[in-house]
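Q: Now give one record:
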Amino acid sequence: MSPLLAPFQLEFMQQAMLAAGMVGAVCAFLSCFLVLKGWSLMGDAISHAVFPGIVIAYMAGLPLAVGAFATGLLCAVATGYIRENSRVKEDTVLGIVFTGLFALGLVLFTKVETDLHLNHILFGHLLGITDAGLRQTLWLGGGTLAVILALRRDLLLYCFDPAHALSVGIQTRGLYYLLLALLSTTIVTSLQTVGILLVISMLITPGCTAYLLTDRFERMLVIASASAVCSGVGGAYISFFIDGSMGACIVLVQALIFLFALLLAPRHGLLARLRSPLRPATS
């Protein structure tokens, strides 16, 4: 057997690559909407806010995903409520809510005796994913993808022009909370792959990469998902040979793809802008 094919022959690597590919696809689809909506900080906030839910779920003997989803959704709903009922802007509210919840998680974690490994929560543990964890990732990821695909046109109009969406009869408030729920579910799906701290990259980078390469949203979805799945499988593959953190390798591959797009995108890349002739000034 060729040494280069060794990762594909090992069951734990096959499971890791499958989980990474599914998480990459889900994050990529959602990232396209987050980029259009300008919700990068929202993804960062919810990814940190799930930490106390994980610890509380462990204390209560519940599945960790249940606690993570509950506190992630709590962060999103609380942010929306405070934004609508106070003078404080959304980015400021996010900073207060997610840092407070993350700090609460750290306090709970240090006060409760647990065999949970903090590094696995923060940075993921793809190599140790269980059969149950893989099934959970596939079910949650597949369900989230199905909802996004079914409502992609309404979500696109809401993210691009909420006022127009409301004028044509779309329930924008419902889509606001649905998008938050999808974001929370996606973060829960990603916990075992890249962890809390790195999931924000998977939620933003694929959409940004595709945004540089195309001006059509349908094509943007395809490019984002392709780059994310390739990054997931490629990062897992590379980590096998360099003995590095799999989640970090996945994120680094995504960052490299983004840099290539930033430089070489045919219309919006840096090199294309340098090659384009200067437009004459108009009087």
Notes: Residues 11-37 form the longest helix (27 residues). The chain has a mean pLDDT of 82. The chain is about 80% helix and 0% strand.
